[in-house]
């Protein structure tokens, strides 16, 4: 029974607790709903107030915009009216000036008409006086002709003949004296000028060939240079484009190549490899690349130094680079860059002596052999190649003409052209400048004439211009005009195949037909 009472008490307590919890939640929801309604009312009130303020601001902005637009329109109208008034005032001034000019022109025209009438009257008076004077002169001439029995032309001819006879001997004697004195003084002056120029300009020359010898510390280095199965020497020759000759010469190897720049790169690379001691394809490639950069820098510095020494500033960078390449180019053992600098100095001094353009002469002297820097890459005479390069870089036309004419590829027409030709010959022919033995020179000339003479249809061959040209005289009954063209091509091909020579050799075929008959 007691347990039942406890159970009923617990049930009643639980129901009371549930009811209390229900009423508490109900009161909390009612309070939250009331607060939410208050917040919503506040938000609606704020929104209404903001809407009213925004509408007022929009109206204010609209009114202000209207005021600004009216003010701008008023100001624009005032500016336009001011500008119109100024233009109208300017037009009025111009109209007044135009009216004044028209009035002045009318006055000047009237004055001119008056002067023209006076001039015509004076001309008529002078013509009348001239006619009167001519009549008097003719009367006196007629009177003199009647008295002397000679016409005016006969008298003039006799007088001129008498004067000519009296002075002919004296004039001839004076002319001969002046010519002899001018020739004597001119030759002496020319010799003095050339002597002074040669003495003042002495440039050291170096002798180089198409091979370079590199010394080795010992003969064991040759095997290291060759490498396993020749891989080192193959890599070296491929990267440098130069033949590496390893023979029985003790403690030395030979680099052979036609391009002097490549040969110099190969020489520097091989020396650096020997000093470094690590010789393998990877190291060879690295050393060759560094040597190329080093030689490129030397070429640039050599070109800039040559431009500075000869005062030939303003050259294109490509031309300066080509000048630097000429440092490694030789002609008969004479360094081409030093030869060009020497020719530039000689041209400048000669131009100063004879009154020519020293700037053009010096510049043309420096650039005259520019084509030799690339003549093994481009076909044609080096003078023409150099002129074409200068033409592409917009060089001075007088300089280009002097460069192209210095070996008579075109006709020299200016004093500067002649000075470059003379300076080139002075530099090349002075003692010690070039190194070619007389025996080699004579053998080359004989070989040229032998090639021409052994060709069918040739009567005689002459080597001229120091071996730069051969002239072939053919038998006209055996060689016609078309065959002459083929013969020139065949001889040129034989020279290319059978001889070694610097530059190029011109082949000229001469065919002459003579018709002879006798009148009996």
How many β-strand runs? 8
State mean pLDDT (0 to 100 scale): 79
Report the top-level CATH class of the largest domain.
Mainly Alpha
Sequence of strands across the biggest β-sheet: 1-3-2
Radius of gyration: 52 Å
Number of helices: 14
Query: Would you give the CATH topology of the largest domain?
Result: Hypothetical protein af1432
Gross morphology is: flat
| Residue share in helix | over 70%
Structural class: mainly alpha
Description:
With 520 residues, the chain is mainly α. The chain has four domains: 116 residues; 33 residues; 219 residues, Hypothetical protein af1432 (Orthogonal Bundle); 74 residues, GMP Synthetase, Chain A, domain 3. Helices cover 71% and strands 7% of the residues. It contains 14 helices and eight strands. It has a three-stranded antiparallel sheet with strand order 1-3-2, with helices on one face. The chain has a three-stranded mixed sheet with strand order 6-7-8, with helices on one face. Helix 14 links the parallel strand 7 and strand 8. Helix 8 packs antiparallel against helix 9 and helix 10 runs antiparallel to helix 11. The longest helix has 147 residues. The chain is flat, with a radius of gyration of 52 Å. The termini are far apart. About 1% of the residues have low confidence.
């Amino acid at each position: 029974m007691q347990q039942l009472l406890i159970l009923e008490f617990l049930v009643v307590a639980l129901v009371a607790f549930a009811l209390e919890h229900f009423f508490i939640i109900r009161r909390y929801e009612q309070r939250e709903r009331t607060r939410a309604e208050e917040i919503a009312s506040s938000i609606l009130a704020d929104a209404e107030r903001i809407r009213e303020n925004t509408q007022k601001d929009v109206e204010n902005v609209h009114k202000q915009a209207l005021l600004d637009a009216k003010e701008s329109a008023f100001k624009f109208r005032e500016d336009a009216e001011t500008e119109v008034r100024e233009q109208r005032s300017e037009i009025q001034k111009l109209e007044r000036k135009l009216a004044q000019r028209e009035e002045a022109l009318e006055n000047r025209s009237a004055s001119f008409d008056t002067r023209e009438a006076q001039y015509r009257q004076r001309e008529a008076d002078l013509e009348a006086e001239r006619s009167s004077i001519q009549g008097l002169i003719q009367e006196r001439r007629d009177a003199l002709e009647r008295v002397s029995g000679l016409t005016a032309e006969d008298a003039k001819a006799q007088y001129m003949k008498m004067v000519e006879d009296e002075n002919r001997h004296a004039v001839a004697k004076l002319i001969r004296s002046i010519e002899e004195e001018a020739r004597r003084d001119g030759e002496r002056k020319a010799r003095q000028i050339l002597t002074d120029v040669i003495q003042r300009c002495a440039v050291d020359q170096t002798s180089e060939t198409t091979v370079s010898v590199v010394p080795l510390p010992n003969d064991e280095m040759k095997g290291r240079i060759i490498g396993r199965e020749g891989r080192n020497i193959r890599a070296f020759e491929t990267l440098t484009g130069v033949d590496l000759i390893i023979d029985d010469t003790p403690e030395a190897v030979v680099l052979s190549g036609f391009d002097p720049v490549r040969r110099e790169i190969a020489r520097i690379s091989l020396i650096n490899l020997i000093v470094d001691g690590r010789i393998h394809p990877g190291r060879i490639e690295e050393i060759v690349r560094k040597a190329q950069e080093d030689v490129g820098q030397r070429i640039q510095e050599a070109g800039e130094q040559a431009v500075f020494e000869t005062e030939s500033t303003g050259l294109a960078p490509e031309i300066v680079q080509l000048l630097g390449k000429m440092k490694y180019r030789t002609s008969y053992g004479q360094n081409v860059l030093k030869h060009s600098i020497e020719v530039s100095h000689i041209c400048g001094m000669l131009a100063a002596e004879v009154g020519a353009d020293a700037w053009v002469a010096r510049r043309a002297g420096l650039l005259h052999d520019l084509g030799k820097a690339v003549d093994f890459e481009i076909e044609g005479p080096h003078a023409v190649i150099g002129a074409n390069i200068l033409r592409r870089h917009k060089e001075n036309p007088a300089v280009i003409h002097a460069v192209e004419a210095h070996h008579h590829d075109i006709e020299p027409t200016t004093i500067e052209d002649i000075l470059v030709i003379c300076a080139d010959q002075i530099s090349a022919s002075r003692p010690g400048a070039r190194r070619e033995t007389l025996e080699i020179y004579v053998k080359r000339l004989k070989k040229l004439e032998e090639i021409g003479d052994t060709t069918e249809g040739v009567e005689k061959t002459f080597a001229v211009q120091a071996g730069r040209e051969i002239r072939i005289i053919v038998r006209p009954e055996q060689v016609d005009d078309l065959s002459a063209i083929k013969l020139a091509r065949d001889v040129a091909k034989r020279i290319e195949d059978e001889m070694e020579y610097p530059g190029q050799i011109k082949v000229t075929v001469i065919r002459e037909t003579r018709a002879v008959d006798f009148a009996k």
